[in-house]
């Protein structure tokens, strides 16, 4: 989504421009509303405060990811990675705006603290989804995979935000494939057979819940 996509995003763009030019603490809600061409009451209907403007996109993204994960997916591990990729694509679509937001957050301690909490919300969303989708999964496997995907995502995103060069989505996709491979949950292409006997070989690193899911899938 670009800054001109809606009145709400216009407020975000105006606020970030003011924060960058005159400082977060020095910018008032009234100034933001005036720059965006909205009333003060409209601002507060859309946002709870100045911090909420900075993290408005994350609220939208978290809601989208909840809906996406609730659709149900054959491979929960892949679904978590796909969710991560969709977030990256969102910010890579308008890197200048994303970089401006990043620079502002880095300068303000309160915003850095809010960012830490926001990152944890993504991690918790992935963790809870895996636990729902893979009954019996070891909680350490769920939280470990969620944390690893989130960390890899943030590492690649920082490459985009800290530089001026384009960092394609394929960079993240390759990294997440390696995450699944290392975690032992990457679906490998296997020959289909109609034989009555099923022989299955799984990596030692594969979580028991994933082994159970794959066996059930093959036998159904």
Description:
Helices cover 71% and strands 0% of the residues. The chain contains eleven helices and no strands. It has two domains: 50 residues, Homeodomain-like (Arc Repressor Mutant, subunit A); 159 residues, Tetracycline Repressor, domain 2 (Orthogonal Bundle), CATH 1.10.357. The two termini are 41 Å apart. It is elongated and about 70 Å long. With 220 residues, the protein is an all-alpha fold. The N terminus is likely disordered.
Short summary:
By secondary structure, the chain is mainly α.
Task: Write out key terms for the chains shown.
mainly alpha; elongated; Tetracycline Repressor, domain 2; 2 domains; single chain; 220 residues; 11 helices; Arc Repressor Mutant, subunit A
Main beta sheet strand tally, sense and closure: none
Question: Compute the gyration radius: what is it?
Answer: 21 Å
Could you report the average pLDDT, rounded to the nearest whole number? 88
Number of helices: 11
SSE topology string: HHHHHHHHHHH
Sheet-strand content, in percent, reads: under 5%
Helix content: over 70%
What is the 3D shape?
elongated
CATH class of the largest domain: Mainly Alpha
CATH topology of the largest domain: Tetracycline Repressor, domain 2
CATH superfamily of the largest domain: Tetracycline Repressor, domain 2
What is the tally of beta strands? 0
Looking at the overall shape, the CATH architecture of the largest domain is: Orthogonal Bundle
Alpha-carbon distance between the termini? 41 Å
Low-confidence stretches: 1-5, 189-194
Q: Would you tell me the structural class of the helices and strands?
A: mainly alpha
Q: How many domains, as an integer?
A: 2
